[in-house]
Predict the 3D structure of the following.
Amino acid sequence: MTDFLIRDIDPELLGKLRQRAERNSRSLQAEIKQTLKQSVRLNREESLALLDRIRSELPPSTSDSTVLIREFRDSR
């Protein structure tokens, strides 16, 4: 893993990070890592593109669950 240094952090920001780390029962370092991970999640457009790609790779559905649900409901 790579280390990096962030200089001149606003003391107020650092205090908020420390408070959040404490609330989440994490160290300050773990809280900062989690914050970084969350900040690079896929945006909406990227998420939709990924969903479209996955859907295109799945076989088409040939069953209609409506019929199965009706049959189950009527059998009771």
Remarks:
- The CA atoms of residues 20 and 66 lie 47 Å apart.
- The radius of gyration is 24 Å.
